[in-house]
Amino acid sequence: MPSLIQPATRGSIAKAISTKSLSKIAPESPRPLEMLDAVEITSADILTADDAALHELLLSAAYEADKGMSDEFTTLPVSTALKFLGEHARRDALKISMRRLMSTTVSYGNKKTRRFEDVPLIFSYIECTEKKDVIRYSLPEPIRILMREMPAYAYLELAPISQMKSKYSVRLYRVFAAAAAREKWVPGGQNKVIVSATLEDLYKWTGFALDNGAMNFGKFRQRVLNDLASELSTVRRFSLRIEEIRKEARGRPLERVDFHLNLRAPSHHLTRATFEENEHIKRKIGGADAPELRVNSNVWVKAQKTFWNVQKRMHRLYFQAWQIALQEALDEAPVSPGYTQRQFRGHRLLKAISTLGPDEAAWQFCAEEVSNPDILEDNPALLSVDPTEAIEARKYRIRARNYAHVQSHSSRNQSQVDESKNVDGARNTNNMGVTATSNRGFSRPAPATQPANKQVSFIEDAGDVAVSDLDAELLGDLISGADEPTAKSLVVEATEEPVETEQSADDGAFEVPVDDLGLDATDQELLADLIDEPEATACKLEGIREVIWTADRGMPMEEVEKVIWPVFQEDFEGPHTVNLTVRAWIDGCASEFDCGVFHVDQAAIDTITSRLGKHLDDYFDVEYIR
């Protein structure tokens, strides 16, 4: 007997709803295609958008709890259903929705595959006591059979469904989800699907009511199509464009409607690339930002891993490109023509951050750049725009936020608290020497002025200032200046030669004659040797931020992974915190590999240099970057 195809639910539905993280976790539930594009309502069509959303939630929760669909009844808290439907949802309205679902029957599938006719959507009731208030429901056997065996399926995104206001939008979304599932997103590919529909198809898919027994496209457009793109704007799998195709005849009657689905890269949730706590700080992956713009550092590692076979770029380039695009959007100052042409640039990027969340928006931005480089250049090691200004803008955002955070805490001890707020909900910062940021633009801070209330020092006793781990990380990022400037000051030195220390201008001004020390000739000679001995090991790494080994020959990526990476896997210990980097020629392009930030001494650097020399036959240079 062949094994059943039972795809897993993506993301925890219960956690997403209970923590109010539906858009962030973005749970997805699988459906057989028969339940998407081959559905017909056979009873009176009295359902609403909330009814459709509730049914999808109940079906998804039952499948998440039991993929075998063997449980006769499933239990779901009433509070969970109400949170899913939104702030407008009420318990009485929920009970009415359940009645409408129980009185509705549908037919699924077709005779060529499998078909079930006049199937009731659900049987349900509410069970409540002083301690619990739950929905108890049972799905009919045909639905359980369809969900148990899915030879062909697509995923439905629950977050967009919970926000849709039209039942017709929900039904068309199911059709589009089935069509999109038949195509796979490919970096650099067309990644487009066109769903063509006649007016008859549209009425069949949506169950739209006839107008005096006839189909009326004008009314259909007004009631269904005009708001469809907006209703589906939070769908992650694709974006939508609608095109009306007219016949070449008198009056130009409608021939069909083409729905253009622009496929997006699979969500970053589907790629595994994690690391230990605080490892992203040591390896200088990503960086902090204002809360509403902050991207999880995992996203940049996932981009490197997922798109490596297409364009061999390190995570830092994706992060720098993102900072450029973000500053471009906030300042409304285009850096390239892509600002007006791309889905994840300019005001469209800010909207994506608002609707999809910064993690998913950043991920889709990376995918768009990989498919057609713009800010990222064709050379995997380069950017087409200098990121320095964007990097500084990010630091200003954090500095402004941290300053406001400290002021808000310190003002609690004052007799009067300024409760005035700006349009974005941030505290008034008129006396802070900074300019508040908004989602429309970014202004650099005004010259620092002494605030009316002295800022609490992070060195002195801070009183009741509560600095969280996140704030400490942000502050550490600012103090350490972890972002590398694009133009680095290079100090190229041979590894075997000591660094000459600069002689002080008044060297010897306070020198005591040797005769006055009471030393004989032998002691004087030993003392002179000690004084003259260079301290190369101690001085070499002072003030050095990065050490770069550059190979003077090409090498395949396999050699980098099998030979170069292992050299840096040892646990080094030393007083200097230095970023270690390897440059190499791969496929004719210069590639830079960030090996991470290590605590090293000169002996560790010499050991690495020696080991690399064995593999590279000494064909490499060593650079010390201040």
Automatic annotation (TrEMBL):
Where are the residues of the annotated region Disordered?
Answer: 404-451
Which InterPro entries does the record match to this protein? Answer: Initiator_Rep_WH1 (IPR000525), WH-like_DNA-bd_sf (IPR036388), WH_DNA-bd_sf (IPR036390)
Query: Where does the record place Polar residues bias?
Result: 405-417, 427-441
Show the Gene3D superfamilies listed in the entry: Winged helix-like DNA-binding domain superfamily/Winged helix DNA-binding domain
**Which Pfam families does the UniProt entry name for this protein?**
Rep3_N
- Any GO molecular function: DNA-directed DNA polymerase activity
Q: Which GO terms describe its biological process?
A: DNA replication initiation
In which domain of life is the source organism classified?
Bacteria
Q: Where is the Initiator Rep protein WH1 domain?
A: 47-175
Q: Family membership, please give it.
A: Belongs to the initiator RepB protein family.
What is the designated name of this protein?
Replication initiation protein
